[in-house]
Amino acid sequence: MPFPNLPEKRDSEPIITPERHAEYRREEADSEDQALPDAVVICYSRKLMDYFIETYDGREVDLYYGTLYVFEDSGYAVGVLGHFGIGAPTTAMLMDELIADGVESFLSIGFAGCLQESVEMGEFIVCENAIRDEGTSHHYVESEKYVRASESLVADVTRTLDERDERFHVGSSWTTDAIYQETVREVETYANEGVLTVEMEAAAVFAVAAHRGADAAAMFVISDYLGLSDWEPKFHLTTEDMRRLGDTAKEILELRVRESAGIE
After folding, report:
1. Which of 89, 100, 125, 181 to pair with 174, CA 20 to 30 A apart?
2. For the chain, which domains are there?
3. Are 111 and 125 in contact (CB under 8 A)?
4. In which residue ranges of the chain is pLDDT below 70?
C-alpha cells in the first residue's frame, strides 16, 4: 500500500486551506485583530510553557487552539506556542495557521528519548533531519526516509550554542507516532545508523515548513535512554535542563528576528 493512500493527492487542491480558516476565525472572533510575532517557539511541555508565562512579561493572542504567548521584551516579535498537547497532527495544523497569518520561523523544543549512550543528560540535541515514521509529514512533501530542518535556522542555533559554550550534539532524530510501540529492532537499527533521539513531532515540523516556505528547526533535552534490554526514564531530572532549553530557544529567535530587521 502506498503512503498516503492516494499519492496523486498532491496534484489536487485542498478543500480547506489555512488562509480560508483564518478568514473564518477572524470573522467569528470577538476580539480585534492582534499583532502576531515573526517567530515562534513550539513548546510541548506544560511545565515549560507555564515557566515562560510566569518568567517573561507578554500577552496572549486569543486566536488559536492552545496558547500563543508573545514576549514583550522581544518587541512582540517572538512568541511561544503551547498548552495544545503533543504529537505531529496538531502541531502541523497550528503551524499551517500561524504561517498563513505571517509567522516565518519556528523552533520546536522538548523532550527526546536518547538512542546513544555517548549523549549525557543536560546536553542539547540539535536535530538537522528527522526519520519520517509518523503519518503527517507524508501529506505535505514527497515520501522519503528523511526530512531536513532549515539550514539557515540550524546554523543560527549552533552559532548561538557555540557562543554560549553550551554542550550539544547535531544529528538525526526518529519521529514516530507510537510511543509504546518503539521496538528493540527499531532501536537497534536506528542506533547503529547513528540516530541520536526519538520523539513525536520533528518530521512534521520540518515538512510543514518546507511545504509552506517557512523556516523550522528543533532542539531537545534528554528525558530517557532507550537501550536494547532496558529503559532508563529520567524525566524527573530535567526541570532545569528544560528551562535552559526554553530560554536559549527564545534568545535564538530574538537574535534571528533582530538580524533579519538589521538591528544590532
Report:
1. 100
2. 17-260 (3.40.50.1580)
3. no
4. 1, 30-33, 264
